[in-house]
Amino acid sequence: VLADVEAGRALVAGFVSTAEQFGLVEASCTPGRTAVALHAQCDGVELAPGAELASEWAYLQFLPLPACDPLADYAEAAARQMQARVPSLPPPGWSSWYYFYQKVTEADVLSNLAAIQARDDTLPLGLVQLDQGYEPAWGDWLDRKSEFPHDLGWLAEQICAAGRVPGLWLSPLLVWEGCRLAREHPHWILRDQRGRPVSGGFVWKFIGRGLDPTHPEVQDYLRELIGIAVHRWGYRYLKLDFLYAGALPGVRHDATKTRAQALRGALATIRETAGDDVFLLGCGCPLGPAIGLLDGMRIGPDTGPHWNPRLFGLELGAFRSDPSIPALRNSLRNTLNRSWMHRRWWINDPENLMVRDQGTALTHDEVQAQATVIGLSGGQLVISDDLPRLTPEQREVAAVLTPLSPPWRGEVMSGAQPLDMLEREMPELYVLRVRKPWEEWLVVGLFNWSDEPADRLLNLARLGLDPARSYHVHDFWRRRYHRVDDGRLVLRHVPPHGGHCLAVRPLRREPHLVATTFHITQGGEVVEWVHKGGWLRFT
Length: 539
Known about the structure:
By secondary structure, this protein is an alpha/beta fold. The protein has three domains: 2-82, no CATH class; 93-299 and 338-399, Alpha-Beta Barrel (TIM Barrel), CATH 3.20.20; 417-538, Immunoglobulin-like. It has helices at 72-82, 97-100, 106-118, 152-161, 180-184, 216-232, 259-274, 317-321, 328-337, 364-377, 392-399; strands spanning 2-4, 9-15, 22-28, 35-41, 58-64, 93-95, 127-130, 165-170, 174-176, 199-203, 206-210, 237-240, 279-282, 296-298, 347-349, 382-383, 417-418, 429-435, 440-448, 454-459, 471-475, 480-484, 488-494, 498-506, 529-532, 535-538. It has an eight-stranded parallel beta sheet with strand order 15-14-13-12-8-7-6-16. A six-stranded antiparallel beta sheet has the order 17-18-19-24-21-22, covered by helices on one side. The longest helix has 17 residues, at 216-232. The two termini are 44 Å apart.
């Protein structure tokens, strides 16, 4: 998006078909020489005599500003062209990663499963997802280390017996070249023109190597891997990580395939093998080729138990400001700016929530800010702590985000949108519109992402509300009420990396709800509100 906010106009440029080639948009904003160029990247693939190759469909749209959802038309056009699949929201869940990391054991998973069952009435979690760390070597996903005395099928059975959905992490396209799979099948590794393995980037302590998804044997391997995980072991939720490895540049077995086609072919094989009823979450995945094949998408880098990126525990120079390295700041930035994809291309994954106060450098305000963004985003909720160690207060932070149950009588929480996305790199005004048969209201996340305390202004006209009316404003986390009669509310000394979660409702003459404290929507859990004469009934 190229925007001139002061002039009140913007240009949206992109591609609505993304299955065959990656798209590149270049822009020059030099005064007097503004230019935009759109490229469909064919990657120098072979084209047989007489054959044809068509580019992807480009998209240009001029927009008046302000626009509350400037990428809506583009997102919906791409969704139609790519036949996006948008399933029901998966159950809220637990992941082993951000507490146990690679040291996870079978006992750790069972301990957290027991904690989930014991506290189901206060923190209902329906998904139990084992993350990376069960394998003896990166790439040997069908094997397990000694800390898992039973096979992964047995573990899935225990999760199912507890009434939960078993989930499993896999990296199907990126391996360590020292693993058994790579040693036995070196010809599966993608190589450059000189025959050297292509780098898939630094992964923990090694350079990852991508498999060539156009090789027939790799396709058979994907069918075997996914078939065992889903149909033999019984996992109904797969978190597929490092998928970019399927689109690395290199010399492919099928020289007619572009990078986008190679990746999409691998995802199609995985989807066909898993079946339509298995939830597939993509991570580290180029976005376009995945539309229509994946159910959910991690739409940013990993989070972490720290605000800024760190190297060996230290915040160093350029590393500290890198927007792609794991850190809570970088995760939130992408969640906010890619909110427009949610329920249009897939279910957005806003990354795992950590609410603990041990083994983390996150402040209380940072945890609340992440909880607010996740809750208003409408995306999947996954908590990644050692659940038996959490206090009731920490569990409550996650509990108020869980999807409403029973469902909202056919209503869908589409998710919030950042109203200032075109004004700053990290939006500070995140607005969810909640609709009920008896009323509508707004839930507003108002943030201070700077490193110092700062005041923030809630301007009701900016929210599309009539500033001449009076409004109730309830601060969810602070349990504080404000009445606004002049269209403006100044919030003083908002803490660094913190914010407020505000329910905004107009004053009315008849009995009406101001707010609740049971759920972050502050009333979304209410399923009935009937007022007749002198009586009121609500549920």
